[in-house]
């Protein structure tokens, strides 16, 4: 269980602004920690949460969607507070039907999940009958209920290949992220795989994307490379001092320009495994760099905070206090949909 002293210590090491923010919010944070302990709450924090919220969760309580889904599945606490967006809290509820799952703001949505519901998945199944459907975790329960497998940005490649093998096919429907679908397809092609992914926009005019990652343009990344002296990695060169790491939800040309394309946890692992790093650009939601900056004060993280997720930013300390006090709003999923949505998630969790 994370303590006020640990959080204080973490912010003391951080930039002056962050420490001042902590001091200003200290009483609110203390109240949240009291409520967390009194009510025996698992507080899960996504990597994109602002540092003051992110630090309410300790080791084994924070991470990317896949890690948080696994923590939720293993927890024996009666209440889960999900500091992330609503589809993530729904996933925790699907895995923990007997627990109370709370989210500080029910309006914390997602540009990928919001427009893409169950009916949209059914339309793809009708258009391409018999093919397995892999749905990205950034989707609501009714959309997951129509899919065969769920995946996250950590395991997308693994899951699409697994689905193709299970169904004995070389075509897989991948929903709802068009850019991630294209990136995965490129990666498969580059690895010599004949597997074809069918994603929104490939055979129709539909489009699904993250409103944050799609704004990271090739021009912007090239400018960052020039301005901050972040040369592209040469194959075989050891101990990089700089790196450009981007997310699977970015544009395909941005993936090609990066030194590594991965999930948030894969980017974090890269930083942890390369102690020679001095400067890093993370092509993803900008709060993640703020959180990593606290862990790696010696690294200069280039941040592009004009690009931030308005949905993640809805989760604030004040709303968290109210949510823990009132145990509202509670995330619920109709039982019939929950049972069907559980299958693709369980299949994903079983893939090692
Ligand atoms: S960062 Fe993008 S994918 Fe993540 S919640 Fe925000 S809009 Fe959705």
Model description:
The protein has 352 residues and is α/β, with parallel strands linked by helices. The protein folds into three domains: 4-109 and 311-326, NadA-like (Rossmann fold, 3-Layer(aba) Sandwich); 118-208, Rossmann fold (3-Layer(aba) Sandwich); 213-302, 3-Layer(aba) Sandwich (Rossmann fold), CATH 3.40.50.10800. It is built from 15 helices and twelve strands. The strands form three sheets. The protein has a four-stranded parallel beta sheet, with helices on both faces. It has a four-stranded parallel beta sheet with strand order 6-5-7-8, with helices on both faces. It is globular. The two termini are 28 Å apart. Bound molecules: iron/sulfur cluster (SF4).
Element layout with pairings:
Elements: H1 4-12, H2 16-38, E1 41-46, H3 51-54, E2 62-63, H4 65-74, E3 79-83, H5 86-95, E4 100-102, H6 118-127, E5 133-136, H7 141-144, E6 149-151, H8 156-167, E7 171-175, H9 178-190, E8 196-198, H10 218-227, E9 242-247, H11 252-257, E10 260-262, H12 264-273, E11 279-283, H13 287-295, E12 300-302, H14 317-326, H15 335-350
This protein binds iron/sulfur cluster (SF4).
The site of iron/sulfur cluster has 12 residues, from loops.
Features:
Rossmann fold, 14% strand, 352 residues, 15 helices, alpha/beta, binds iron/sulfur cluster
CATH architecture of the largest domain: 3-Layer(aba) Sandwich
Ends distance: 28 Å
Question: In DSSP terms, counting alpha (H) and pi (I) runs of 4 or more, how many helices?
Answer: 15
Mean pLDDT: 94
N-to-C SSE string, H for helix and E for strand: HHEHEHEHEHEHEHEHEHEHEHEHEHH
Rg calculated over all Cα atoms: 20 Å
- What is the CATH topology of the largest domain? Rossmann fold
Instruction: Kindly estimate the percentage of residues that lie in beta strands according to DSSP.
Output: 5-15%
């Amino acid at each position: 269980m994370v303590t006020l002293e640990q959080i204080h210590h973490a912010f003391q090491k951080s930039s002056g602004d962050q420490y001042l923010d902590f001091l200003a919010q200290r009483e609110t944070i203390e109240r949240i920690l009291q409520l967390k302990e009194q009510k025996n709450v698992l507080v899960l924090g996504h990597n994109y949460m602002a540092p003051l919220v992110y630090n309410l969760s300790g080791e084994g309580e924070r991470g990317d969607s896949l890690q948080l889904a696994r923590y939720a599945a293993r927890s024996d606490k009666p209440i889960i507070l999900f500091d992330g967006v609503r589809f993530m809290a729904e996933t925790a509820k699907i895995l923990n039907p007997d627990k109370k799952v709370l989210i500080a703001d029910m309006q914390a949505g997602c540009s990928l999940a919001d427009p893409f519901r169950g009916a949209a998945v059914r339309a793809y199944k009708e258009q391409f009958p018999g093919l397995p459907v892999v749905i990205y975790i950034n989707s609501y329960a009714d959309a997951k209920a129509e899919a065969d497998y769920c995946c996250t940005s950590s395991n997308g490649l693994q899951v699409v290949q697994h689905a193709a093998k299970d169904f004995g096919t070389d075509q897989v429907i991948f929903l709802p992220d068009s850019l991630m679908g294209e990136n995965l397809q490129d990666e498969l092609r580059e690895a010599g795989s004949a597997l074809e992914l069918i994603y929104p926009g490939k055979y129709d005019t539909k489009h699904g994307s993250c409103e944050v990652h799609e704004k990271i343009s090739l021009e912007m990344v090239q400018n960052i490379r020039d301005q901050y002296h972040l040369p592209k990695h040469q194959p075989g060169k050891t101990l990089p001092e700089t790196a450009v790491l981007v997310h699977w939800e970015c544009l395909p040309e941005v993936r090609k320009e990066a030194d590594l394309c991965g999930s948030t946890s894969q980017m974090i692992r890269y930083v942890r495994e390369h102690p020679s790093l001095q400067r890093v650009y993370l092509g993803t939601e900008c709060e993640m760099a703020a959180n990593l900056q606290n862990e790696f004060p010696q690294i200069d993280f280039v941040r592009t905070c004009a690009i931030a997720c308005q949905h993640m930013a809805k989760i604030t300390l004040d709303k968290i206090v109210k949510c823990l006090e009132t145990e509202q709003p509670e995330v619920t999923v109709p039982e019939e949909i929950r049972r069907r949505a559980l299958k693709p998630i369980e299949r994903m969790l079983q893939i090692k």
